[in-house]
Structure formats: C-alpha cells, structure tokens
Batch of 4 targets.
Target 1
Amino acid sequence: MKTENEISGVAETPVVKLDGVHMSFGPVHALTDVHLTVNRGECIGLVGHNGAGKSTLVNVINGRLTPGKGQVIYDDDAHSKAARNALQARDSGIRSVFQELSLCPNLTVLENFRISYKSMPGASWRKRAREAMRACLDRVFPGHGIDPRAMLGALTIAQRQMVEIAIAFSRRDMDANLVILDEPTSSLDATIASQLLDYARHFCARGGAIIFISHMLGEIFEIADRIVVMKDGKIVEDEPAARFTHERLVETMGHMTAEGEPTLRARESLRFGPEVVRMQNGLTAREGEIVGLAGLAGHGQAASLARFFMEKSSVWKAKKNPEVAFVAGDRTRDGIMPMWSIMRNLSLKTLVEFGKIGLIDINAERKLAEDWRERIEIRTDDVRNPILSLSGGNQQKVLFAKALASCAPIVVMDDPMRGVDVGTKKEVYGMIRTEAAKGRTFLWYSTETDEILKCDRVFVFRDGAISAELIGDAITEENMLRASFGMYGNAR
Amino acid sequence: MKRERLRILLPVLSLGFLLAAVFYMQPRAMSYFGLNLLFNLAIPVALATIAQMMIIMVNDIDLSIGTFVSFCACVTATLVHDLPVIGYGLLAAAVGAYAAMGAIIHARALPAIVVTLGMSFVWGGFAVLILPSPGGTAPEWLRTLMTLKPPLMPIAIIAPAALAILMHVFIMRSFAGVLLQGVGGNERAVERAGWSIVRLKAAAYGLAGLFGVLSGMALVGLTTSADANIALRYTLLSIAGVILGGGEFTGGRISPIGAVLGALTLTLAASFLSFLRLSPDWQIGAQGAILILVLAVRLVFARKDTLS
C-alpha cells in the first residue's frame, strides 16, 4: 500500500471505477448502464429521489452486490486479488456507513471497533482497541465525550452514529481510501454534523475519497466537489458542484418522467363527497378521493397510515362492517399468509363480513374468490392453489382484491406497488380508479412519483410532518421534490 | 455498566435469599457436607445451562439439550467404560454433530426451535439403543473426580465457581467470545465486517455440544449409572437458568456467571421445597411459581430502567 504522502501527489488515480454496470432485481432495473469513476481526494455528492438506485450503487461499489453486467474495477495497487468483490473492496480501503446502524448494541464501543477491524493483532486487543477508538473519535468529533468502554446500547442514537462514522474513518493496517456515507447526518445535531463535514473535507484534502449521500442539499453543496444525480437507476448528471444551483439540482432529479401515460386525473368536474378522514397531522380526505402521501421514504408516511388504520380498527374483534381496509406493501412481512391458498388469502379480510354465527360461509368464500379471479385476472387455473404459486405481481393483486372485496369505505395503501411489473400496475390503477368513482376513498403512500401524480390530492411529508398539500395542477413532480426537500413555498 | 450490574444482581439476590431460607429451616445444611449435598446435582445442570447459553447467545434456542445430555450419560456409562476409544470417539462425533447442526440451521435459514426439537428425538432414540434399561457403570476416574473432597470447600461449590469464572473470561473478555456475542447482537454487522456467520454459529453450537457432553459425564460421575431419560428436564432447567441468570432470548445478551448462578438457584429451589415438606406432587408447580416470581421482579426492574 502507498503511504499518504505519495497519494496526495497523485490526484487522478481512481479508487474505484464502474464501467457500464447493470443491476436488476427481477423485473426491476435498479441500475442501468452506470459509469462512474471515483478519484482520490474527491468528495462526491450523490443525490436522487427514492428508489433512484443510490443504495444499489453503494452496494455495488462496496462489493455486496455483484452487477449483472459491466465491471467494477478496484484500485490496481490493492495488494490482494481476492476472488469476491466484497473482499477486494475491503482490501482497497472502501468503507461504508449505512443508514441503519450496523453495530452490535450488546457490546461495548471498543468491542464493536474490534469486530469491524478483522485483522487486528490479537495480543492485548482491548487496550489497542480502546486507544484506537478514542483516537479516531477524537479526530473526527473532538470533544465527543464517548467512553470507548461504554455499552453501545446505552448510548444515544446520535452517539452510536458518531461511533459508526469514526470506525469507518479509523486507522488500520489498510487505511480508508473511500468512505461512503449514506445519510450520515440524519441523526446528528448541527454542531456534530459540521464537525463531520469539516473532517470529511480534511480527509479528502489528504487524498481520501468520499461519497456523500444526503437529502440535505445544503450539506451536499457545502462538501461536494462533484455532484452525481441519479434518476430511475441511471446517472443523469455528473458534474462539478460549482455548475449546480439548488434550483437546478432539484429540477434534474425530477427531470425525466414526463413521458407517456396520460394521468388518470382528467376529472376536474368530478365532485367528491363529504370529508371522511381527518388526521391529527392535518391529512384530510373526502369520499371518492384518491389522496397521495408523498415525500422521501421514511419521513412518517407509513407511520401515519398505520396509526390511522389502528385507530379505526378494533384490536379485539373484527367488525361486520369495517371502516378501513389495508393493502400492505411489504408482502412477505405483513401481506400474505405464505402457506395458504389464493382463496383463503383473498377471503381473510372478509371472513367476518360474509360469515354466519362465527362460521365461514364456504359457498360465499368460493364465489368471492372466483368473482375476483375473473375481475382482476389473477393468473391461476384454480383459486385453491397455494398463493406462492403466483408471481409477485399477482400476489399483490390478491392483496388488493382482499381489501377491495371488503365493504370498507376507506382503503389504506402502504406503497403497494413495490416490485410489481408495469402491466399489473396498470391493471391495479384501473381498479383503484373504478372503485374511487363508486365512492371509496383511497389513502395511497407511494415512493414512485408517477403513482403520486395519479392522485387527486397529495400531502408531502418531511420529518414526520406534512410540509405541503398539493391540489389539482399543483401536483407536479417538481413541486413534490421541492416539498420533500423542504423548499416548497419559499421558491415559488 | 450500570445495567450490566443490575443484570447480575438479581440471580445473586435470589440465590442468596433461597440459601438463607434453607439455612434458616435446616441449620445443619450450613456445613461442608450439607453444601455438597445441596449443590452436587447442580454441577451437570450448570454445565447444561452453559450449553444452552451458547445457543441463546446466537439468538437460537436448543430444545434437545435434555435428551442430548441423557444420550451422553448413556454413552459414558456404557461405551466409555467398556470400550473407551469408541466411547470417546462417539462423544467427539456428537460435538461435531452439534456444530454441523448450527451450520445447517444458519445456511438453510431453518428455525432452530424445530431442528433441535427434531434432534431431541434422535438423541433420545440413540440413548435407548445404547442403554435400553437403566444401568451401566461410571468410569473410575470420573467417579473419583466427582467425589473428590478438597479442603475448605466442597467440589459442588468449587466446580460451578470455576466454570463461571472460566466462561466469564472466555465469553465476556476474550475476542472469540465477543465475536460470538456480536452474532446475537447484530448478525449483519458482524457479516459486513467480513466474518463468516456460518462458522461462528457452528462454533457456538459446537461449544454447546461440548458442554452437553461434559454435563452428561458429570451426571454419570455423580449417579454412577445412567438411564435414557435421566436428564430430560434439563431442557427446561437450562433455559430457565439462562433467563434467570439475566440472559435474554434475543440480542446476544447473556451472562455466564448469571447462568451458573441461575442453575444453582433452580437446583436449590428443589431442595428448598423438600425442606418445606411440600408433597412431591406440588414441587414442579412450586418451582415454576418461584421462577415466575423471580422473572416478574426482573421485569419490574427492566421496566423502570427503560422508563428512567
């Protein structure tokens, strides 16, 4: 490995180079033809909307995912030619700080350090780890006040994040050459965040490289030399930071989707019924309305839907006429019963509605399943087949049918189209539109912009609160992005 | 650090309380001989509890430890005594089987509770094959070891204390132990740092197998003979011991010293109930009641801890 002095002289040796990388998960193309070179001494700001492919890109760079097509070339000087990308990445000094914490809460800070540093010499490791941990914390966050012997679980979230960042920058037998920071400041307060930015700048000046992912555009501008904008799995812009303004950055992030597919919102004349939903955070919905919940993922949309659903449904007893039905986005976690047949999955929500004195009405159940199979074209020859015999998209259709079969006037949808192919999506949009016309209300959280554009009214969430309400023509991708980044209103 | 101290406080207090009650009712128990009698059956229980702790440490649970200990006891009382090479070979193979079970559970993402429940029947079956009716003989050296009379403290106190200290050093202080705890704490973090989870889980299960074997041998050394059903209740005793000792089912939070104390407490609880002259019909229920009481106290503490 080279020493630091040598490195700082050569600015143009790439730490990692991505050459025409493709990556897909089933029908979803997460990355398409990505070219990216990360040079030493460079700080790259990576921005993009939800699902633009940022996380996938990060995982390709750190070797946890092997691209379907294309190549990832690591630093030639790396002393090992390890077989797996993950090992190569580690040997060329690539470290990542993930959004969710990857430390062990049941161990002390120094023990966590030791686990991350795999090849640390074994003799008196506690002392070494304690000193190394204190040193790297002191370097990145002077005055941090964290005892390396403290139990990690006893620290605050911000302190844990600080520990994780410090570990990523720590000195080892192989020093860090590229540190990927994925939303590192989300749980840090302003002072600590600025310490981190200072250190990052310092780190780059000494020849290290950084990829900085953040939705705080201010931070991106503060730190990045180069900004890479991702959109729908592609890199759409890759230019020096100086050429961007806030305005232009937000615009680029949302530039490309204006294509095709007329919105289903050609219904100005349509009258909605009375208001049926009013949440504490200000979200309202009227009868027959499709209300979208937008914003960056994890800013409180799913949580407020879940809270609403829990409030409206009893914990103890299913009602004959439920008020709300729920369509889950994370199928495997809270959607399907994997061991059950299509029919039983479909009728689960309506068992009480259609049942008699606590018994299942078998004929009604059968009829319901057959009805819905035809109406939404579930591709199976027998509804008694196991649900897992269906493709993901068809499973999702069953979940929709399950909710729609109920007489509930309000349907809550928690990003229901995740991992569903385009054809199925179109069918489901049609179903939603028809049902809305019949007077049903939909609350629709989606991470996909074109789905939100189909809504009659949109609430954009930021930091757990509603930052903007968009109606009619104001529902544009640009406005949504502005609001998601907390810039709606001041830039109008 | 404070929470860790609290974790160890409860098993210490509950053992102390029970011991005081026993001494109050039966002052003659407060002697070298009395202590040995009270605690000598605690040695195999403590070993089985440590075995269970290894599995709970990596977020799994072992429902086969009772039959496994019975199986090992049967092997020790027959093959190890008669054909030592085959006997020890078989015990070593059993440890290997445990390690393999851990690797398979992780590699195939199987629920440990199901696999170990299935394995419990396998071990039980082997035990019956080896020793169809109660009997067998303990190897001479084992018998001598378990009836050793060291000065000052009886073996029934020294052995669990040594076990507790040894395991504390290994699990809490050595790096290998820390890594195993890490698997329970955040498997993904450990994996991301480049460690092989399959190997670590196999190691944890292998250690559990080793302590299971030691438990079976210790049991035979004490009872001088074996029976295919000799240690069936160890499954529940060991789980209870780990939890009583401050361990938690998930998150890699365990305490070796606590686990040994928990095993001692559970053994003592049985004697305590005998001293109360409680009819044996009620003893298991009463033992359960003691367990619930202690865990309830812990829950109150834990609640306060999170609230403050």
Target 2
Amino acid sequence: MSTTSDTMVRFRDVTKVFGTGSSAVAAVDGVTLDIEAGEIFGVIGYSGAGKSTLVRLINALEPVTSGSVVVDGDEVSALSERELRPVRASIGMIFQQFNLLSSRTVAGNVAYALKVAGWDKPRREARVAELLEFVGLSDKAGAYPSQLSGGQKQRVGIARALATSPKLLLADEATSALDPETTRDVLALLRRVNAELGVTIVVITHEMDVVRSTCHRVAVMEHGKVVEVGEVYDVFSSPQATATKKFVGTALRDRPGPEALERLRRRHPGRLVTVGVHEDGTSGASLTRLLREHGLDGSVVFGGISEIGERPFGSLTLELAGDDATISAFLTELATTTDVVDLGTAADPRDDPRVVAGASDESGEGDSATGAPPSGRVDEPDPRDAWQSERWPGTGSTGTSGLGRPGTQGTQPGDFGTEPGTFGGAR
Amino acid sequence: MNRDWSTLWPILLSSLGETLYMVSIALLAGGLGGLVLGLALYCTRKGNLLANTVVFNVLNVLVNIVRPIPFIIFLTMIYPVTLAVVGTTIGTEAFILPLSVMTAFGTSRIVEQNLVSIDPGVVEAARAMGASPWRIIRTVLIPEALAPLILGYTFIFVAVIDMSAMAGYIGGGGLGDFAIRYGYQRYNWAVTAVTVLVIIVIVQVVQFFGNWLARKVLRR
C-alpha cells in the first residue's frame, strides 16, 4: 500500500482553518515540509503556534483545509474516514496526558491497539509481553493505569503506540507532563525506539531541551507557519527567526541577556567578548592557544556548553585584559575559527545581536532572586548542562564526558533494559 | 386490625409483584432506549465522534420537550400511541409503555452527562489507533464511564419506582395504587406506612447493590 521513498511525511502547502467567517483561525498556515524516514524530527513552538494541529494532520485526526499530506506514500489528506483507519493503525501516537484506558490494565491497554488491528489472542499475548519487556514494565502487566507513575504511564503509551510495529511515531508533547528525570528516561526510550527499531519519530514540544537532546532536525513554528527548519545543530548555532533565538536562549542560556550583561559590566569593566564554542572542542582549544600566543589574560565570566545533536555547542564570555591593539589582533585571528561577538567595555558597550530579550535572561533573574553575585562565576542555570568552570581551560577539550546528552549514559541500568535482538520478532 | 392485615398481606404482595414487574420492564426497555439516546446525544455533539448538528439539535430539543412534562399528564397524552401499540389504555401493560418512554428520556440525559466526563484524549487515542466509531462506543465510551453509569441507573431506578406509583390511575396496580386505595382512601395510615416501608427497603437494597457494583468496577 505504500511506495518506498526516503520521505516519510510530505506536507505541501498545507493549511488548516478552524471556525468560519470572521472567527476563522488558521492554526496551520501554508506549511511545506518533508520529514525523512528514520529521523527524529522535532516541531517546536509556543502554545498556540499550531504544532499540535500540524501533527494531527499526519494521521488525519484533523482533516486539512487545503494542501496535501502524504505519509509513506499514502495521501492521507485525500482519504475517507473509513480508508484512514488502516493508515492510522500503522502510525503510532503518544500524548501529553498519556490517554490510557483507565478501565483496562497495562497489558489490556497495549493489547487494545492489537485488537483494533485485528490480531488474534495468542499473537496479541506474545506481542504484549514482548512490548512490556521492551519498555521495562513486564512486572506491571496486571496493574491499572491509576496505579502507575507518570513516566510508567508514558512507557505504556509508547508500548501501545509501537504495538503494530509502525514506521512512524507521533509524540505530542510526550514529556511535558513529566518531571525532568522522567523526561530524560522517556526521551532515552524514544531514541532507542528510533535507533533499534528504525522508527521515524515526530516530536512535538515547546521545550528546546527536548529538541537539543533528542532530535536530528527541527522545524520552528510560529502563528501556524514554519519559520525555520534544518539540522538541530545548524538551527542552534545560527538561529535566524526571533522565535528560534528565544528557544535557543532558553535551552542554552549561555549568552548573557541585557540585564545579566549590565550586571557583568559593573563587575568587569574591561573588554567583554563572547566566543562560540563548538565542533568537538577545536575552537575551545584554539581559544586557549591564541590567548597564550597573544600574551593575553582571559577570565571566563559567563557561559555554558552542552551537547546538541551529539556535538558540543555553547559559548563563553570572557573578560580580556591587555592593550586594545593586542586584543584586536587576537579577536581578528579568533574570528577565523569561530564566531566572536565583541561586547565592548563598560565605557563603550556593544550589544550581542544574537541575544533576544526575555530569552537568555532568565538565568540573570535567577541570580538576583537568590542573592548570588550576578557575575564573576560561570553561570550554571541548568544542572543538565553540567558545565563546570574548573574544566576550562584545562585540557582545552570541551567535549568531555561531563557534557553528555541527558539520558544517554543509561541513568538506570536495566530500567529499559533488554537485548536489542530480542525485540520485534513476531510482527 | 389483625383480621384486616390477614387479607391485606396477599394484596400487598401482589402489588409488590406488579411494581417490580412494571419497573423491571421499564428499566430494561427504557434503560436501553435511554442508553442509545444518550450515546446519540453525546456522539453527535459538536466536536465529538459523529458530530452532526442537525441530529443533535433535533434530539436535544426532543429530550428537552418530553422530560419536563409531568408524568401523570404524559400518561394521558400518549393514550393514542398506547392504544395502537398495546391495544388498550388500562391495566399494567398499558402503563408500561409510557413508563418506558419516560424512563428512556430521563436516562438519556444521565447517560449523556456521564459520557461527557470521559477524557476526550482517550477517544482521540482510540481514533489514532484506527478504531471505528462503533468500536469506540463499545470498547471505550461505555467501559470508561461504567461506574458512573451504574450509579446513574441506580438513580433512575428510584425515579421509575416513583413514576410507577401513578399506575393506579389507569388501573395498573402496584404499590402506589395499594397505598392510595387501602391506606389513604380508607383512612388506614398504617397501610400507607407499611407500603412506604416496603418501598424504602427496595430502594435501599438497590442503592446498596448499585454502590457496591460501581465500587467493584472502579477498583482500578
């Protein structure tokens, strides 16, 4: 029923309008987008941006107003409700509120998807056991959803969504109702689903951290439109749209916002420079080398480095001590290897064009709230970024183990543990 | 008094039998009809499974028209229908028809209200799995709302007992008729009291059973 192609989901000029006449709202407005087979694709946007509507156009829970949506060769936007049923059965979906049937046990919930797909009882039972093993909930088979924690519920949701071995999994704010640690576990499970089973995953989220740690490519949505799309690393390293800059700011918080910068300048009246650090630590190494070569002193006053798409990324803000000519020469040479933003001095301030007010300034607010000195230390707003000031300049490598992706280290061995080869046998 | 009761007991017993007969048939037929009508109201509502504004509005207005009619007036209003269907307008059988119809309309609202409390996300999840509307009604809507539905039907049972007291007006018999004729009209307060006591016992037993069943279903 499907043709083999590299594109799993193809949106062509898709519009979805809710309401009519003067109250009509275009939740999705002229979206053209390709989601490739085998990738984890993120769709990020603030609430009301249209991302949840967009994902519901993929399995046609919402019909399109115009345009076409093709999923794995099937033009879902042209199918009738009856024709859509088998297509929907071949697309898994998980939800923010899990949406488990409270009247059925864990095993019953997973089996339900198989029942709908017409599996007979012996095959259902074998498959349910296999799936619960995969998500690490074999011991909860007879429990009811109300007896489970949020993370366990979502794992049941994932097992249910994977029951019919779909090629595509839609995750609608799947971690938004979970605490940070459970979020990491669930995201690790999604990455495993992608890596071991080859399932294409579309992740809808408003948290850039989810995109940063999990997705390969990302589309940023605002007012129903896709304002930016690309590799997660590229989008992070050179965000174009205002919305994107805000999201990047909230995820990294590596660049001082206007208020934090003001406080920095009070403490560090000298020349402030923000240096991008990325690509396996090479620019971090060149930074230390260049400082040494130019005989300059640089002290880190702000910054953060974490991993994006398995590559280290972030920035450091330094206060440089030395005469202007040396600093200029140093900056010129540094600019050939990485992006450098000259913030000037307290007497002659300049702004960072990449910083959007209200985005990366949260950390600065946190400083004043806790009464901690606003600067003079490396800012560490998010423990998951795991940046530690003592590491720098140190070995010159920023891609050290402490900066690992959340969840990739297998926080709880055996939690989702199963042999990769044991899954997916009986299809 | 004692001589009186020896003749009254058998009449009370047969009246009890008539009441249970009327109420159980009405609950069965009207309860089922109400379930269908309630499901139709819920499913055709805007944004739901089988959203259909025309059908919903027609059903909604119909239910709103029928439900407020006092039962004793409704009883006489549908005489022509009763005559056509049952063949007579007096007696227990003739009373069961209007009782069932009214039960159905009353039940429909209760069913609809209990279904509204279901998380729409669960329905959406079932749709996302490719389930048909009919399958969703059978395997999602009813099981998910089962406990409140049981309590709703327990509530309806009491309402039907209440309505069945009016059977005497068309010669339908039952406990209500017994209390009026042998208690009220003969100035025998004790008979009325005993009849009320019997009704209270029935209601208590059914309520207890309903609560127990709902709890059992909700054990999850």
Target 3
Amino acid sequence: MTEPATAPPDAGTPLLSLRGIDKSFGAVQVLHGVDLDVRAGEVTALVGDNGAGKSTLVKCVAGIYTTDAGEYLFEGRPVSVESPRDTAQLGIEVVYQDLALCDNLDIVQNMFLGREKKKAGVLDETTMEELARQTLASLSVRTVRSVRQLVASLSGGQRQTVAIAKAVLWNSRVVLLDEPTAALGVAQTRQVLDLVRRLADNGLGVVLISHNLSDVFEVADSITALYLGRSAATVRTRDVTSSQVVELITTGRSGELGLSPATAQA
Amino acid sequence: MSTPTDRTTADDRPAPRGDEEAERERIVELARATGGGSTLSEPAPAPTFRDGVTAYLQRLRGGDIGSLPALLGLAVLLVLFSALRPDTFPTALNVANLLVQASSIIVLAMGLTFVLLLGDIDLSAGVAGGASASVMAIVLGQAGLPWWVGVLAGLLAGLVIGTLIGLFVARVGIPSFVVTLAFFLALQGVTLQLIGQGGTIAVRDPVVVAIANGNVPVALGWVLAAVAALGYAALSLLRWAGQRRRGLTRDNLGLVLLRVVAVAAAVLVVTAVLSENRARVPSIQLAGMPWSVPLIVVLLVLLTAVLGRTSYGRHVYAVGGNAEAARRAGISVQAIRVSVFMIGSTLAALSGIIEASRLNSVAPGSGGGNTLLLGVGAAVIGGTSLFGGRGKVVNAVIGGLVIAVIANGLGLLGQRAFVNFLVTGAVLLLAAAVDAVSRRRRTAAGR
C-alpha cells in the first residue's frame, strides 16, 4: 500500500507553503523557522514527538495563531492570514481531534452547522441533504446508511468520516487532520485511512498529523518531521525507512538527513 | 489508488498524454459519478410501514422517547378522572376551564423550553410574568391607555428582564441558576412596589379580559379548526412528496397519514366539545373555544417553525448539544444564550398577562408560589431534557395539559391542596427521572 509517488520532490508550486515560521508565547519560542509544503493530490504527514510544535504549527496554518515571522504562501502567492476566517476563505479546513460534532443533531445538520443553506429565509433541508449525500458518496463512504441519523448513534470511525466530509463540503483545497485515527479500532482506522487517501486522490492537499508511523507510511507521500520546534527534515516517504523517521522524531537527525548535530543538540 | 500515477500540481499539468492517462481520468470520473459503491449515491429507499415502526421503536430503546410518556400519562389521567367523576370531569364546561387553566402554564413552559434547550434554567420566569402583568395593569388601569399599549408594555417588560438575565449569564458568566434566583427575589420586590402593599390591581380592559374569559364565535372556531387540520395535513404531505421526488430520507407514507389523521381528530374533537353550549342556565348561550386556545396554537406553530425551520433554531440546538462545536462553526454562543433568555422572559410575560386576564387582577403574589415549578414541570414532563439540546415546543403543550389535568382532576375529586402539591411534585420528579435515565441510555447507545 505504500504509495510510490512519482512526482519529483520539488516539482511544481506547492498549494500551501510556509517558510521560516517563528512563533513565541511570551518568552518561550515554540517554532524556529519551520517550513511546511502541502501539494495538491498528496498526503503530507506531519510527525514529531510531544511538544515538537505540531499543534502550534497546525494552529498557525489554520489562522488561530498569527505567526511572528515567516511567509505564508498559497498557490505561490504570499497571503495575509489573520484569523480562521481568512483560511476558510482560502479553502483550508482543519479537522480537530475532538471532531466538534453535536450529538443531538443529525449528519446533515452537523455538516452544514453555521453555514446552513436557506431558501426564502427558512432552512433548505432538501438541498442540504442532497449535498451531504453527494459529498459522502464522492468520498465512497459505505459505512453510513442514512444521512438523517443522529451523530450520537455513530461509531468513532463514522464520526471521523462525518467530520472529514464536513471539511470537504466547502470546496476546500487543503484539509488538515489532527490525529484522525488516534481513538479508533483496526477496522475503523482502515476506513479512515482509505478516506484520507481518497481526499488526496480527489485533488486536495492533505496534511495528516499522526503519531502512528504505520499509518503515515501507508498513506503519506511525504513526511515532514518536527524536532523541538524546528523542521528536522522533509522527505519522500518512499526514500526513507520507518527507523529513519523514528530517529528524526527522537533526535532530530538520521545519517545525512535532519538538523546539523549542533542544532539538534541545542 | 494503488497504481503509481503522475501527481502533478495544477500549475504545470501537462496536456493529456495518450490513452493511459485518458483512461485513468475516465475511471476517476466514473468513480466520482457512481460514488464508488456508496449507497448514498442512490435515492434513499422507500421505507415500509414496518421499517418506520421499527425505526421508531429503536429510537425509543435508544433513549429518545420524546413526549410518549406524557401522551400515555395524559390518556391514563383522562380515563381515570372520567371514570371517577363522570358527571363533572368529561363535560364541556370543565374542558373549557381546564384549557384556560392550562394556557398560562403552557405559554410559560414554551418560553422555558428555549432556556432548557441550552441546558440553562430560568427560576425567575414565574415572577417575571407577575411583574410584567403588573406593568400592563398599571398602564391599562392608572394610565388608561388602550389594550394593545398595555400588552406591549407588559411584553416589553419581559423582554427587558430577559435581556438583563441573558447578559449576566452570557457576558458576566454567572450560572443561570444563580442569576435567575437573584431575579426571582428581586422581581417579587418590583411587583410589590408597583402594586403597593397589600393591594391588587384590577384588570378591566375588555380585550385583555377576553383572552382567558372570552370565547371565539362557534362558526369562526370551526373555520380555525379546519384551517389548522388541513394546514397540518397539507404541510406534512407536501413535505413528504418533495422528499420522495428528490430521493431523500423520509417517513413511511402510512405513518405520515396516521399522524395527520390523529392531529385532525384531536383538533376536531376538542372543537366539537368546545362548540357545545356549556352554560348551566338554559337561558344563556355559552359556547365556543376560549381565545387562549387559538393563541396557543399560533404560538405553537410560530415557535416550532423558529426552532425547526430557521438557522437560529438550529443554532439553539447546536449550542445546547455542544457549545464548543457551535463556537467553532462560527456561531455566536453568547448571542444565542442571551436570546433564549429574552424569548423565555417575553413568553413568561405573556403567560403572566393570560393569568391576569383569567383572574381579572394582578396581586403582589402573582407568578410566585408554584407557578414556575408548574412551567418547568410542564416542559420536562412533555419530554424536554433538563440537560440541554433536546426538546420541542409541542412538548410544552402536552406537558402543560398533563399538569392542568392533574390539578383540575384532583380539585374535582375534592382533594385538599396538599395532595395536589404532592402529586404534582411526584410527577415532576418522575419526569426528570425518565429524562435522566433516557439520557444515560442515549450515552450508552451512542458509540
């Protein structure tokens, strides 16, 4: 299943590109000149140990945090990102670990929450249900029988599916998934990874934040490893082994790859 | 998906390169068009009557019981009291009385439904009604202004009270229990001051008095009943037909028809009973439904539409279900929280006005005592959850009827007041227990 992506690592302009991102909270600098590239049609895995800065970087991408320094490029053009509203306009959606679904609403209602379709001032349930069905069908979702069941009745994998479909519904270009398989069993992890792969196959840029290297090696085209707030390395998945990535995560370097010894030890 | 493919970015996508590339694109297109085996790409299957019943039973088992216990309880109570007091309980006169008694409770419970949907509580709703009614009484009696000015002033008083409560809860961040407890005490002082020590203000305006004491002409009553029954039938069937035409999830037609017939039967039976002459003296003609009945039906339709058919209503449910999810979806949780208290207190004011109309007066104790508990009881007995996120306006109507039937029936049985308190308290506790247990079942059924 490892995806041998044939595009050369630097071909074309990345859909989303962060260059030299710095971010501090008070006296603590969390990100030091971090780079991240997201290409359309590819899954980019973001790995790193606890405290490496993955969540901070995701929040910078999402516009929840503003960066202190660095460039934010979308389709090669610098853009100014001040709030989540700006990133939503660009078509960047984040699926957080806690999914943020309302148990007391059904799938359609959750997918359109806050962006309901209206006709003459009242909710246009028909259109919303049709769009929800089409979106789930386009992602080849087989596990959901009816889009009118309450989210409370769904399994963990189905919830994740709904959260992802919700992010895809808005003509999004880039989807960031924060630990989508963390709480799932084997079969459900399988469904979600298939879905992640299909998102990229549908032409989206996908960022997968994960601790699970077997998941990463299964779906990702490239891997960006963070180490203590620095980009340790960005590699093509087919060029590296799992143990090299583990080294990158734990020590910031692996053979020729990664940070210089001096930086890694700092 | 496992075949190696060129993934070039949009910027330098090359021109189609021969058959292989074209073939791949064709397959991707096909997969998208067919949904790759997802059943959701086909129209939803037509549900059979049995499917509908099974789905409903499953919902019940999953803890989503709605107003079923209240409807069953109402039926049992009606049969019980009719059997125990066949001469007085099931008479046109008593049914009319009962509905008037229920009116103010129902309207209060409708307002509380909005507050409860957010998982909050408004302990001051009863006395807010009393204070608003005294404002109306003063405008009508002492200032002598027309009825609509008085009613508007009363409703405005409720709106102001609700806005204040909402701001304290949402902006300052005090739990609603504490804020409304403070208002419960303070508003009694306001009412006392407005009315003056020991006195009552009479309400004599003919229009206001007619809300609870006047009757709709029999012919007009029948027209309204027909409009209500046919309107419900038309809306249900049109909605069903639209869903079928576009291949969407829908109920079984048999179940839809069953509901339409049940609603029409209830409307027509009540109208028929209320259209009988219920005067005790043969020389007087007393017939027609009390004006508060169509008032409640209008509120029911209006508020149900607000909760079920507008994005505002959807956001109320979302905030009640998961405030954090609502916030991330761009919903202003604070604004929603303030708004439910505004709606709650305004409807409480209307409830107070109806009560003032029924009693022809406002007293310092108006809206105090057990008024609030009856309102909360009505909402909860009807099936609105105390934990937020679940509930409908119609639950308030059903629950309000249960409460009113208990009070009315026990009164006819000649029971003393303490029995009434005990029974109502026990029923409220039972309803809250049912709510808590079914919530546990929902949590267990989910995941």
Target 4
Amino acid sequence: MRRVKVYVSYKPSVLDPQGAAVKGTLHRMGYPEIADIRIGKYFDIQIAETVTNLEAMIEAICDQLLVNVNMETYEYELVEESVG
Amino acid sequence: MKFAVIVFPGSNCDADLLWALTEILGETAAYVRHDEESLAGFDGVLLPGGFSYGDYLRSGAIACCSKVMAEVKRFAKEGKPVFGICNGFQILTEAGLLPGTLLTNQSLHFICKTVALKVEHNQTPFTCDYAKGQVIQLPIAHGAGNYFCDDATLASLKANQQIIFTYAYENPNGSTAGIAGISNQGGNVLGMMPHPERAVEELLGSKDGLILFQSMLTYYRKVAVSQ
C-alpha cells in the first residue's frame, strides 16, 4: 500500500470562527503568545500499489470531493514507509 | 404542477415540504430517493433541509455525489426550476449549480428563530408573486448558513441580479452582503437558508413562505400558456 497524507485548510481570506474561539481560550489559559490558530482537516489515505499516476489521482479526488475550492486549499505528502 | 422532493439519508424537512406542496398549495408532489436515476415527468425539483449524510466532510458534500444529482444537474441545465432549502442550498453550492459556499455561522451557534428577509428581486420563477423590496418573516434553523464568496463572485451576483433574498434588519450568521438566498445566472436554480415550507399556514406563525411556492406555480402556468 502507498500512503498519502492530505491537509485541508481554509483559504486565508476565509474567517475561521472555530480557530478564533480556540485562540481566545488559549489566551485566557495564559498563553498570550499564541498569535493565530486555524483549524483544518487531515486525511490519512492508503492506496493500492498498482496506481501509477498517484499524484494526479490525489489531486483529482481533492478537487472532486475532499476539498471545496471556494473556501479551502490543500497540500499533500507521499509517505515513504519501510516494509517489515 | 408536479414536484419532486429529493430525499437523501439524513434529510428531515422532506415531509414538511411535501405537506406544503400537496395539502396547502394543492399541487402534486412525490418523494424521489437519492439513488434514483430519473426525474422524468416532474416540472420542478426541490431539495429539502436536513443533515444529509450527517454533514460529514462538509454540509452537502456527500449528497452532491449521489446518483440522483446527475439528473438534477441535467434538469437544471434544461432551464427547469430547481430549489434547495437550507441543506438543499448547501448541496446546490457543493454541486456547482450555485456559486459560493455556506460556512459555519460566525457565532458558532446553531440558530433557530424567525427572521425578517427582504425580497431583493421579484422577476424570478420563485418570487414573482412577492413585491420587490417586500419584507417577509421566515424561520431559519442552521449551523452553517454563513454565505461566503470571493469579491469577483459577489460583483457578478450583484450585476446579474442573482441575490434574491437578504436578511432585512440583522445579519444572523455573518453572511457576505447579508445574503440569505441566491439564484444561478439563468434564474431557474434558487438556494436559500430560510425555510419557506415552515411558513405556509397561520398555525405556523407566518404564511409568507407560501407565496414562494405560489410564485413557482404562477410562473409555471405563465410559461405553459406562452408555449
């Protein structure tokens, strides 16, 4: 199996009220140094070895389902895993 | 006029909608399941509110990939009326039938109350029986009704008169430009967060929503006569 990690976050222009609420809480807890928090999503995906165009496939599923390009952006990494 | 009410797993306003269309408006309506392939014989398609697929991933994201949506897109492309309420609006934006998207309410609260709306545009198949500028009372009930689009999209919505309803006195959820409902460029696809199907009888506190469904009927009959 190949493993891919996809990270989805709001575009900078989109307000993230959940992130703002968590930041405010941390400030109240005594961490005023926290300058900004934005909450995103993380997908851990296993893909069959037989797929040859892995990157094209990841981008296609992101664009078609995992990400709403109106409000979100994404990045991904291919994880090299040692077998055994 | 024969309406299809699409039912997804997790839809919960489908029965209210069917009641409004059949018992109050007096027209024909039927449920169409998410896995059906045909909308043949229907004159209008309605996507009800609810929490399709538990709002997993994003509100409406999974529902817009269901089998019936290919047919809804074809129906919309033919210029026939498609109307999404609340979760139905979210599904229409996810499906690309309407621009922009619905974000979590700015307050992070689920908001359930009656709000005042302004009818911005009444030359549409959904609002022709309202007066332009009329202020109406409809309930809202949503956690993600904060309409968002980029500046270019907002400019084109304004230029094409696609902003159909705005929140009249207060903006409950942080929506861009106070937007409560928009149409597509062709005017035959409408999405809105407030629930007109919950305001169709005096018993429900307001009948202002009934005029929307009556407008669909008025427009349909006018088109039928002209053809």
